[in-house]
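Predicting holo structure, adenosine-5'-triphosphate bound.
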Amino acid sequence: MEIRLENINKIFKGDKKKGVEDTIAVSNLNIKVNNGELAGLLGPSGCGKSTTLYMIAGLKEPSSGNIFFDKEDVTHLVPEKRGIGLVFQNYALYPHMSVYKNIAFPLTNLKVLTFKQSIKVKTLELLISLLDNDKYLEIKDLINSSTLDSKKINKDLALRNLINKYHISPSFAKTLFSLDYSSKENINDVIIKAKEDINKEKEKLSNKGFSIDNEYYLLDQDNKRIEEKRKLSKDEIDILVRDVAKLVQIEEQLDKKPKELSGGQQQRVAIARALVKKPRVLLLDEPLSNLDARLRIKTREEIRRIQKETGITTIFVTHDQEEAMSICDDIFVMNNGKLMQEGKPIEVYKDPKNLFVAKFLGTPPINVFKGEFKDNAIFVDNEKILDNVTLTNEYEDKSSLEVYVAIRPEGFIFEDNNETLGLSLKVNEISLSGKEQTLICSHNQRLSEQIKIVIDGDNPISIKEYRFKIKPNKIHLFDLKTEERIYFKDISK
Ligand code: ATP
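Done. Tokens:
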């Protein structure tokens, strides 16, 4: 499902008497998340990303603007009616309930609008299909091999094996387990009895004026399926819980209490609980921030896998740019309640529209210097780092201009005898990480906290000053006042 935010504003009213000003948490926000995609709402603390997520969830109401799920305007719809699954940073699991019950919880009072089905005929037909044509031998083998000490059949294990293999409810598994598989005649008797029962049930329904279609739905005299609003049965809940537990890979943990699980497993339970109602949209609010670094990476990949497998439109809120860049189809970078830029992570990284976005994305961060454009060249501290360029767009007629010069860490080339163009940096520290080395450098026109550059690990670097050549596509210029991007082009070609 597509999610669209149109001109969304959110103002939290202050208290004039107490001198508390209004807070503009979200300002004129326009966002479109494509159907089936994973979108990241990204920005520093306080930028308005959680408020935005809660407005999409229906937990907070916009001060103005509209929210659409496909064509439906959901701006004033209560959360329960939006079809959303929400996952919080602190998991919010019920500690006294088992994992199974935690996941099943949203389903227990859920009323679903469905068509009436003959569960009896459906179950009996399933029974016949599982036993007929010697297929019962497979069930017999599965039960006989369900032993813990390779001697006695373990009933619980056998039931679990049957449930997992045939995707059936616990009560149906119990029926299968209780059959006598010692001879083919016994099984044939069961099949004959099931066929008789099906006929009896059909006759009963027919006397009431109903027939059954090939998906076991009851049809009225006009051959129309019959709607009913009802709670889910225990068996239906069981199948949904086990399906989603399998999807998030916690099917072995269903009987445990949340505290017996690792943080990563608890978060999977929270995701399973959000997904069990088959929501139209999955909303994740900083879901990884309580996990340690290793689990964070593992769990974010899990979220991506689950999202891809289900194809559910998902919005993921995080302040961690690396997290968003690594798993999202699209990112929306926010600052001070405003959308700064949106797009595919790599496109936004390569083509930041302003200094904020350039600084916010990338590890290590972009290096920023005070610099100048003059005589068709870019200078930092009177060193010419790039020439044969001219500014474009609204800056086209400028022959000189003070600018921010931002250079990505991977934009530096080590050439020991480079005499023409480049930037001189004093290397203060070197850290080698396999094929790359990160150099921490100093420069008197630096505006970033640290200058960090990343170059090939084979370069023979020592602690001294070097002149580095700069890759033109890794340099970005920004206006000193507006901090908007100033584009330039190569005029030598
Ligand atoms: P964080 O990552 O720290 O959660 P965030 O980007 O999610 O930050 P929000 O929680 O959306 O930011 O907050 C945006 C702004 O709105 C902040 O300035 C915050 O103080 C303010 N704010 C949020 N909720 C309320 C509230 N209920 N009343 C008043 N101000 C609020």
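The pocket of adenosine-5'-triphosphate is lined by residues 12, 23, 25, 43, 45-51, 319 (CB under 6 Å).
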